[in-house]
Every structure is written in structure tokens, then in C-alpha cells.
Write a structure and sequence with these properties.
Isopropylmalate Dehydrogenase, alpha/beta, 12 helices, globular, 330 residues, 2 domains, twelve-stranded mixed beta sheet
């Protein structure tokens, strides 16, 4: 089986993404090939700040030395100052994402690894943007689910970046069913789990406590779980969120579906923030992102931890290989 070729997009040029990509280029990779969609000048500035070599290569070249990085140039129109994002570069940031995603859709590349984006700067640049997950879903024309993962834990989200007061109205049968189907299919296709066991959290404290603390579990969540169990999906719940993450319980399932962002992710980030990754389930190609922000206060100082980016590349390569094996491609 051939090595997968992955697109690498650093994200916000004034953040830590470029220097993390430079650090990544110092290490030989046996599991995949990388092609960066990035501004060469920004990467060179990051390499200079780190005191590390960087040699951009043509996209079809093979790296041989530390710092070698196949590169498809995406020029930033405004000069980059680390720590100071510039809205004038927003279109280049989003353009790099679109170009890399298109290469994956066309089958030229086998997966996408993304660095952190500064949402406020992209919006200030005149581009409506709620997140890369949503952008890639719209670009591919499909429904997706956000899942964060470490080696010990996988947490998917029924809703993502919503104000808390909007969450209950967003938990509807059709959306919940779609999220569970996408999660179940991804655990099989991307992780090679033949019969996934999914723990589904309730929305309310104590999973509603038989309706005394809310009726969403009774009126929405339980009927969806009952219907999908009838199709053979192994779904546990709705479970109280305060006890679902106990180690002895986690050992019994392959993933957790949380109802909202801060219900599940604090536990996951506490369990392994430096090595956590953000995986978009449901896309026609693997996409894995770092699980941290742009860290503007660290940018250009050479002290940002690259562990999450290294983990994201390794995870994307594994998923690409698993998909290839299951679909007979590669």
C-alpha cells in the first residue's frame, strides 16, 4: 500500500501554525508525505525565528533532509507580523483551506491536516466564518460531525459552536440521528471498529432524572436511540454526563456523543490536551486539526508545543490508510 499524501495548511499566519509546520518539516515521516499550502515568506520567517532550516520543494519532490517541505505557494497579500493577525490576509487563509480541500475531493491528495484559524480576523476580513469544520462541510456539500480524540478517548459533538441558550432547541431528532449515523459509520470506516459502542450523553443534569430536570431525554434523545438500536447500532444512554467519563465506564465504549461543546471537551482536554486532535467525521476525505488555538502570545518565540500537530498528522495518515484498506484503494 502506498503512503498517503496529505495536505498541510498552517492556518493563521500570525499565529503559531507556521512555526509548528517548520518543526514538522524537521522530522522524516515514514507514514505519509506532506504538501504544505502556505506562504513561503511566512514559513521562512518562522524558520528564522526558530533557527531551523527550511527548503521549499516542488509538490512532487521527496524530502531528503531536515527542513525539506513540498510546498504549493499561497501568498499572503499583507506582511505577516507574528502575534498580530491582519484581516487583509483572511482570503489567503481561507483560500489555502479551499485549495487543499479541493485537492482532497479530486483525489489528488488523501487527507487534510489544518492548523489553527483566528475566527475574528477572518470575519474582519469580510468572510463569514464560524469554523473550519463548518467551512469544509459547506465546501464538500455534506453533513459532518466534530470529534476530538486522544489515544484514550473519543468525544463527538451533537452541536458545536453555539451559545448555550440555543443548544436545547438545536437538539432535534433529525440532527441527532444524523450525528449518530455519521459517528457510527466513521468508527467503522476510519477506525476499523466492526461493531462500535457509542455512549450518548443526556442534555440535562442526571440525564433529566426521569423528566424532573428536563424532558429532552424522554421526548427527543431516547426515541432516536430506540429507533437506531432497532437497526443494529449499539448505543448506550442517554447517560448522565457527570459519571459517563469514569474510567471503568469509558472502557466499555468506543466513543462518546456529547450534546454540546463544553459538556464533553473539558474532560477530553484534561485527559491529554497536548496530544488531542480534532477530526471532522463525514467528509469524503480524512481531515484532522490541532486541538488548540492560534496562541498569538507565543507566536514567533519558538516555544509553542508542536505535539498536537504531530499527533494530527499521524492520526490523518492512519485514517487515510484505514480507509484505503477498507475501500480497496491505494
Amino acid at each position: 500500500m502506498r503512503r498517503p499524501r496529505l495536505a498541510l495548511v498552517p492556518g493563521e499566519p500570525a499565529g503559531v501554525g507556521p512555526e509548528l509546520c517548520v518543526r514538522l518539516a524537521q522530522e522524516p515521516r515514514a507514514d505519509c508525505g506532506l504538501i504544505a499550502f502556505a506562504d513561503p515568506d511566512t514559513l521562512h520567517a518562522a524558520a528564522e525565528a526558530l533557527g531551523l532550516p527550511l527548503r521549499p520543494l516542488p509538490v512532487d519532490a521527496t524530502p531528503h533532509a531536515p527542513g525539506d517541505l513540498p510546498l504549493l505557494p499561497v501568498t499572503n497579500p499583507a506582511p505577516v507580523v507574528f502575534g498580530r493577525p491582519d484581516p487583509r490576509n483572511a482570503r489567503a487563509v481561507v483560500g489555502a483551506l479551499h485549495a487543499a480541500a479541493q485537492a482532497c475531493l479530486e483525489g489528488t491528495l488523501d487527507g487534510l491536516v489544518t492548523g489553527p484559524i483566528h475566527k475574528a480576523t477572518v470575519n474582519a476580513g469580510g468572510i463569514p466564518y464560524t469554523g473550519t469544520t463548518e467551512l469544509l462541510a459547506a465546501h464538500a456539500g455534506c453533513e459532518v460531525v466534530m470529534m476530538l480524540a486522544t489515544d484514550q478517548l473519543r468525544v463527538a459533538l451533537a452541536t458545536t459552536h453555539l451559545p448555550l441558550r440555543e443548544v436545547p432547541d438545536a437538539i432535534i431528532p433529525a440532527g441527532l440521528e444524523a450525528s449518530l449515523r455519521i459517528l457510527h459509520a466513521a468508527l467503522r470506516l476510519d477506525f476499523g471498529i466492526a461493531e462500535p459502542v457509542i455512549a450518548v450523553l443526556g442534555l440535562n443534569p442526571h440525564a433529566g432524572e426521569s423528566g424532573h430536570l428536563g424532558r429532552e431525554e424522554i421526548e427527543v434523545i431516547e426515541p432516536v436511540l430506540h429507533a437506531l438500536r432497532g437497526e443494529g447500532l449499539c448505543l448506550l444512554g442517554p447517560l448522565p454526563a457527570d459519571t459517563a467519563f469514569l474510567p471503568r465506564k469509558l472502557a466499555g465504549y468506543d466513543a462518546v456523543l456529547a450534546m454540546y461543546h463544553d459538556q464533553g471537551l473539558p474532560v477530553l482536554k484534561h485527559s491529554g490536551f497536548e496530544h488531542a486532535v480534532n477530526i471532522t467525521l463525514g467528509l469524503p476525505y480524512p481531515r484532522v486539526a490541532v486541538d488548540h488555538g492560534t496562541a498569538l502570545d507565543l507566536a514567533g518565540k519558538g516555544i509553542a508545543d508542536p505535539s498536537s500537530l504531530f499527533a494530527a498528522v499521524a492520526a490523518c495518515a492512519r485514517i487515510a490508510n484505514t480507509r484505503s484498506a477498507r475501500t480497496g484503494r491505494g
